[in-house]
Design brief:
There is one protein chain. The protein is α/β, with parallel strands linked by helices and 281 residues long. The protein has helices spanning 19-27, 40-49, 60-63, 75-86, 107-121, 135-143, 159-162, 172-188, 200-209, 230-233, 251-267, and strands at 32-36, 53-56, 93-97, 125-127, 148-153, 192-196, 213-217, 225-228. Helix 4 (75-86) packs parallel to helix 5. It is globular.
Length: 281
């Protein structure tokens, strides 16, 4: 596979992506592709493709662990999967979601949780949802030397409060709130910001108002980059397809065909063949 070189939305072979480099993408008006990743083998593939940011998202609760929401995901589960991604020795910047209740209790607990993630996984940064009373947690974590990515709009960890996964920022009041939250998160020290499920014109306004970059998911084409859950993008997780997801592959179908071929070969006695068997030599 051909390595992505600098000057495109990637990086020089052998070079590890940094927060500083990512901030230059916005200055050069280069879009930033981001994908979720939860395991060693996938991390190696995405890294070879030159994906600048790998997000170990708490979406693993849905697509890997089978939970109905991200709320049950534990710190231990996030660390387990993040270690596997980092173990691939990626050149990509690895960002890890802070799970529910790891940063909502107090700024002190937030720093401890973020520090544990970075120390135990070797990841490059953490991501946390929301603003408001989370701003002090962001400041404390950044002050401790840990890069933080923010996340506003639809925040899945607040699903019990929101009631449904609906678009945010459509009313005048909520629009102004999101604009203010974006500015405050930048001021608090976030190096980037995920905008989820917000109208595209609002995402454009937020993006143009910030020096830091924005990553959209269901936020239209005007963000500085885009993120999709890998299993959605590849067609591996077929139970859920929101409007903003584009299937760039049909991997589930490929897997089904391979499994069916394997089972048939076993039943027919065609596998393993003589060449696939050991002899007494």
């Amino acid at each position: 596979m051909t390595e992505v070189t600098s000057g495109s939305a990637g990086f020089t072979p052998g070079e590890h992506m940094t927060v500083r480099q990512l901030l230059k993408f916005k200055c050069r008006d280069e879009k930033i592709p981001v994908l979720t990743c939860y395991d060693f083998s996938t991390a190696r593939i995405l890294d070879r493709c030159g994906v600048p940011i790998l997000l170990v998202g708490d979406s693993l609760g849905n697509v890997i662990l089978g939970y109905e929401s991200t709320i049950p995901v534990t710190m231990e589960e996030m660390i387990h999967h993040a270690k596997a991604v980092v173990r691939a020795k990626t050149k990509s910047l690895v960002v890890v979601d802070m799970p529910f209740l790891s940063f909502q209790i107090s700024p002190e607990k937030s720093v401890e949780a973020a520090g544990r993630i970075i120390k135990e996984t070797g990841a490059d940064a953490v991501k946390l949802e929301g603003a408001g009373d989370r701003l002090e947690s962001v400041r404390r974590i950044v002050s401790a030397g840990i890069p933080v990515m923010g996340h506003i709009g639809l925040t899945p960890q607040s699903i019990l409060q929101l009631g449904s996964y609906r678009v945010q920022g459509r009313s005048k009041g909520s629009r102004q709130r999101l604009l203010q939250e974006a500015a405050l998160l930048e001021e608090a020290g976030c190096f980037g910001l995920v905008l989820e499920a917000v109208p595209s014109d609002l995402a454009k306004e937020i993006t143009e108002s910030l020096k830091i970059f924005t990553i959209g998911i269901g936020a239209g084409p005007h963000c500085d980059g885009q993120v999709l859950v890998l299993h959605d993008m590849l067609g591996l997780y077929e139970e859920f397809k929101p409007r903003f997801v584009r299937r760039f592959g049909s991997v589930a179908r490929v897997m089904e065909e391979a499994v069916e071929s394997y089972m048939q070969a076993v039943r027919d006695g065609d596998f393993p063949s003589r060449d696939e068997s050991y002899t007494e030599e």
